[in-house]
Amino acid sequence: MTLRDRFWERYALDELTQEEWEALCDGCGQCCLLKFQDEDSGDLAILNLACTLLDIGSCRCSDYPNRFSKVPDCTQLTPALVGQFKWLPHSCAYRRLAEGRKLAGWHHLISGDRERVHRKGISVRSFAVPQDGVREEHYEDHIIAIIPIDD
Ligand code: SF4
Ligand code: SF4
Predict the structure, then answer these.
(1) Which atom of ligand 2 approaches the CA of 52 most closely?
(2) Please, are residues 120 and 26 in contact by the beta-carbon 8 Å criterion?
(3) According to its UniProt record, which protein family does this protein belong to (predicted)?
(4) Which residue blocks in 14-150 are alpha helix, DSSP H?
(5) Cα 2 to ligand 1 centroid, rounded to whole Å
(6) pTM of the complete model beyond 0.85
(7) Residue with the nearest Cα to atom 7 of ligand 1?
(8) Measured from the CB, is residue 71 less than 6 Å from ligand 2?
(9) Which tens digit of pLDDT belongs to each residue from 90-124?
(10) CA angle 103, 104, 108 (to 5 degrees)
């Protein structure tokens, strides 16, 4: 994989190669938690339940190439969707760059350490629960945050 030197500082999101775009992900797994949007308020409820494909230990998708056929709700992040990145956590590298912020010091591209996102408690490794083991009528008990989404 060839990444241009400090590409995240030198190029806009829509100028990145596919490899650079993928390398931006900090591996927190937060976007792979179940979420539901209130149709009236627009508020987003985030659950501590992990998508069926999320490997909670590594916080990585266990079938990334086939994720859209297996999980139709999975959202593909692209530069074109940059205006909608507000549903992502504030810590997310894509959201940070889209908002003109810098990558965090714990990000693996800065620190060179992919475990720091876990040690800092940014990732879902320590608290996520597999969605498959929870019945839908109990989903409400698993809400961990309500996020207002302003249009
Ligand atoms: S929230 Fe952002 S940085 Fe974290 S896993 Fe999802 S895309 Fe990657
Ligand atoms: S399919 Fe993979 S990338 Fe998509 S939400 Fe599930 S675990 Fe995350």
Answers:
(1) 6
(2) no
(3) Belongs to the UPF0260 family.
(4) 18-24, 67-70, 93-98, 108-111, 116-119
(5) 21
(6) yes
(7) 25
(8) yes
(9) 999 999 999 999 999 999 999 999 999 999 999 99
(10) 85
